[in-house]
UniProtKB/TrEMBL annotation:
The keyword Heme does not apply. It is an enzyme of class 2 (transferase). This is diguanylate cyclase. Its EC number is 2.7.7.65. The lineage of its organism: Bacteria, Pseudomonadati, Campylobacterota, Epsilonproteobacteria, Campylobacterales. Coiled coil: none annotated. GO terms for molecular function: diguanylate cyclase activity.
Length: 804
């Protein structure tokens, strides 16, 4: 195939960037080429405008005085002058253009090769073919036609929209009236003719007609003799229009080799539409070089507007280019590969490949690369975290065995990497030691067994021998499914050997302590039984009342009976209920401890005196609980009465006095508060006994004790000293206060009518204070002297010592 250098029409002069649309039109008319190129200051081609472009621009409202270069918006297809004719023909048909701008090796403008040039060069080859006109009819052009009613503007609109340069005009009965070309319309506009003018006035009324059975050589003769002719109309025997044949139609059928190349090119370009989101290149095999012959808009934006006619090796690195070329030459599949362009990453895919044509698709995978890099870094961070863990962490597959391991796992088993691990243990369970109660050495079961245990909150354990020390170590095994693959599992093994040993030791201690506690509880129950002491607790949020069995004995109920707090209150003596409730309220509301003696009326009809203590917790929790004890002190009270109370008068005896006065003397010494002593006896009591008898005398003593008890304070100490003699101790009271109390009591006794005694009963009193540093015996002796002084002074009077 010949080189195109000799075919370049160098008479077609280019224009500079400042040319107007009118200058472009004039240059096109002068050259007869149908197009003109624009060059920059260095004579490099930068754009092209064709006769059809001018038609479109005029239709869109542009004027002849407008600058032309800014209107040259189509992609410029350029070829070097050392290319062969087959390649240029492929460029022309592949990019659906009639003209190609040619430049030299330096990239400077050389000229233009047109469709006509190639037509004349291949004319002899075309002439040899035996095809008829009907074989070359371009059915697409037959669809578009005009009638006498169309204006120039309407005709031009059809041409621009459908990218055709010729329209036949048909009259009534589909009779051919003539033919209108876009070149004719442009010339009319240049002459000032309005586009609203009727198209019928400007048609060529003598178009070239050929019969559909005419051979191609007849059509070639018409084009040769009439160089201005762009097409011929094909008719049948009845002169009905069947189609249009252009020079391009002839070129597409020049020779089988050219035809095949053209058809392959068209099939490839179907996959590389300009609205593809990816960049698409179409390359042509030229001897040992792959030349870029077509690019979509995205590819021009990515690789530059001058990418066409460059070798593919200008984009790919040499190693990638050679590898791809070798595989294509060998008929092998080319796997997608990545390249970097302008800081972004693109995946290159060979979308279509034929003998001469191949198509490459560039997909921007920068974000995928960034994601992969981020994912790789995240995985490395995760691995670093896992390596930091003291636990053994593995990724295991149900079929693949161990897939990865952290540093603790490799160190424990003494392996350098997972590969060495798998050489010894395909599955981690091969390291397990069979032992009852632990995971077994079974490939098919241990993962699922451990996973099920984890899901139900149970621990799975395994025993593994330490390869360094030979010791058997106990591990807790945790298993979870891998997030992205349900057939993989994440396994962690935590060494709990020391913990297990401590646990067993602790369990032994707990068992021993439990036994001790059980014995202590038995002793406590026995002690409570002996002490008649029961414990209880009251839940304030629901009034639930719990108690020990000793309380059931106090109340006389069965141990199986369950009492509420309301039931308990029904056993309390009516006079004691308020006191017990005050104790509960003080503890519940103020958090203070309380204690009181309460009488219970049990089911046996007995009154049992109990001592109750109520303890509020130091801190309230969600469940507010009061704790307490209840001790049966009935017998204790009786014994105390015998030991500390006078059986006749039911007041303290001298034993109790000795106990209480010791405490008061200590308080006197510490706080220096006054403490007074009153001693009195009944005047002429012997005469009462002799006159009325000892029974009446005893009644007088008891009645008198009642009178005095009602007059003194609860803090005062009232004691029967012996016979008819009594003692009163008044804490925090000076002598004058004690004298007033004695006088009040004396008066009450004198006024009282004692049953069985007709005469007046009187008493004599001695009152003194108790000094801080003296003994109680000394104070009693002094008060006794004052008592006898009162008797000597006539009885029924109070004698007080001077304050000391």
């Amino acid at each position: 195939m010949m080189i195109i250098q000799s075919l370049i029409d160098k008479k077609i002069e280019p224009l500079g960037l400042g040319a107007t649309l009118k200058e472009v039109h004039e240059r096109i008319k002068e050259s007869g080429c149908g197009a003109v190129a624009f060059i920059d200051e260095e004579s490099r081609p930068v754009g092209i405008l064709t006769e059809r472009d001018i038609s479109r621009l005029l239709f869109e409202g542009c004027g002849f005085d407008d600058l032309a270069f800014p209107l040259a918006i189509k992609e410029l297809v350029v070829s070097q002058e050392n290319r062969d004719l087959e390649y240029v023909l492929s460029l022309m048909t592949g990019n659906n253009i009639r003209r190609i701008v040619i430049c030299n090796k330096a990239g400077r403008y050389s000229g233009i090769i047109t469709q006509d040039t190639i037509f004349h060069e291949l004319g002899e080859e075309i002439y040899k073919t035996k095809l008829r006109a009907r074989h070359l009819i371009n059915a697409k052009n037959l669809i578009h036609k005009i009638t006498p009613s169309h204006s120039l503007k309407e005709a031009l609109s059809l041409m621009v929209e459908n990218k055709i340069g010729t329209l036949p005009m048909l009259g009534e009965g589909e009779r051919i009236l003539g033919m209108l070309t876009e070149r004719k319309i442009v010339r009319m506009v240049e002459l000032g003719v309005s586009l609203e003018s009727p198209a019928v006035e400007f048609i060529d009324k003598n178009p070239y007609l050929v019969h559909e059975d005419s051979f191609i050589n007849e059509i070639i003769d018409i084009f040769e003799k009439n160089s201005d002719s762009l097409c011929v109309l094909v008719i049948d025997s009845s002169r009905e229009l069947k189609g249009i044949i252009t020079k391009r139609d002839l070129l597409k059928n020049a020779e089988n080799s050219y035809k095949n190349a053209i058809e392959e090119s068209f099939r490839a370009t179907r996959y590389a539409l300009n609205n593809f989101p990816q960049s698409v290149l179409e390359c042509y095999y030229l001897e040992t070089t792959m030349l870029i012959q077509w690019a979509n808009k995205r590819a021009f934006e990515l690789l530059g507007s001058d990418i066409v006619d460059k070798p593919l090796s200008a984009i790919l690195d040499q190693a990638t280019y050679e590898h791809m070329a070798e595989r294509i030459a060998a008929g092998l599949r080319v796997e997608p590969f990545n390249i970097e362009i302008g800081g972004n990453y693109y995946e290159v895919t060979l979308a279509k490949s034929t003998r001469r044509i191949m198509q490459l698709v560039f997909t921007d995978v920068t974000k995928h690369k960034e994601y992969e890099e981020t994912l790789r870094k995240e995985q490395q961070v995760v691995q670093d975290i896992l390596d930091f863990q003291s636990s053994i962490v593995l990724v295991a597959g149900s079929d693949e065995g161990v897939l990865s391991a952290n540093r603790s796992a490799l160190d424990f088993f003494g392996f350098r990497d997972v590969k060495e691990f798998r050489m010894h243990y395909r599955c981690i369970c091969e390291a397990f030691i069979d032992r009852e109660g632990f995971l077994k050495n079974r490939h098919e079961a241990w993962l699922h067994e451990a996973l099920l245990a984890n899901q139900t909150g149970r621990d799975s354990k395994a025993i593994i021998k330490d390869r360094h020390s030979g010791e058997e170590r106990i591990f807790v095994v945790k298993v979870g499914r891998y997030p992205r693959d349900s057939h993989k599992f994440i396994v962690s093994l935590t060494d709990v050997t020391e913990l297990e040993m401590s646990k067993r030791e602790l369990e032994g201690k707990v068992m021993a302590r439990t036994a001790e506690l059980s014995r202590a509880m038995s002793i406590l129950e026995e002690a409570q039984k002996i002490a008649r002491l029961g414990n209880w607790q009251l839940y304030l949020h629901n009034a639930e009342f719990e108690y020990s069995k000793e309380i059931t004995k106090i109340l006389g109920i069965d141990e199986e009976d369950r009492l509420s707090i309301k039931d308990l209150m029904s056993f309390v003596h009516p006079e004691d209920k308020r006191r017990l409730m005050r104790g509960f309220i003080r503890s519940a509301k103020k958090g203070q401890n309380a204690s009181c003696n309460i009488r219970f009326l049990n089911l046996y009809g007995q009154t049992r005196m109990t001592h109750i203590q109520i303890k509020a917790p130091d801190e309230w929790h969600e469940e507010k609980i009061l704790f307490g004890i209840c001790q049966d002190i009935t017998e204790q009270i009786e014994l105390e009465k015998i030991a500390y109370y006078d059986s006749l008068t039911q007041i303290y005896n001298r034993n109790k006095f000795n106990e209480l006065i010791t405490r008061e003397i200590e308080l006197l010494k510490r706080y220096k508060q006054p403490l007074s002593l009153v001693i009195f006896d009944i005047d002429r009591f012997k005469r009462i006994n002799d006159t009325y008898g000892h029974r009446v005398g005893d009644e007088v003593l008891a009645e008198l004790a009642g009178i005095v008890s009602r007059e003194i304070r609860s803090t005062d100490i009232f004691v029967r000293w012996g016979g008819e003699e009594f003692v009163i101790v008044t804490p925090q009271t000076p002598t004058q206060g004690a004298q007033l109390l004695a006088e009040k009591i004396r008066s009450k006794i004198e006024e009282w009518k004692f049953e069985g005694v007709e005469e007046c009963v009187t008493c004599s009193f001695g009152v003194t204070n108790i000094l801080r540093l003296e003994s109680i015996e000394s104070a009693i002796e002094r008060a006794d002297e004052l008592l006898y002084k009162a008797k000597n002074n006539g009885r029924n009077q109070v004698v007080m010592a001077e304050e000391r």
